């Protein structure tokens, strides 16, 4: 498997954990056992989830970085990560937050992010 593909897979896994750590706690209130946790408890749960993010994020960047033998420079790694983050966030929001709506302005914004990827990778 290529280093580019491994990097993208690890970034996808990492960003899935990140999305749950950053935004999943907003749905915790619907779970009975989380109702007894205060803000500090929620922060600690989110930190635990975020630790799993770093378990995948750090290797992804080390494997993917061109100065470590990977195919991507820092600019490219960052833009790839942002596009993956927003893609996962979109799926997460649609499935877990039924009150949020994906609107045309969101799609247009994502289109501009795809253009950012194009320009970052353009030689």
Automatic annotation (TrEMBL):
Alphabetical list of PANTHER family matching this protein: DMT FAMILY PROTEIN
Spans through the membrane: 37-56, 77-97, 103-121
InterPro entries in UniProt: DUF486
Keywords: Membrane, Transmembrane, Transmembrane helix
Lineage: Bacteria, Pseudomonadati, Bacteroidota, Bacteroidia, Marinilabiliales
Protein name, as recorded: DMT family protein
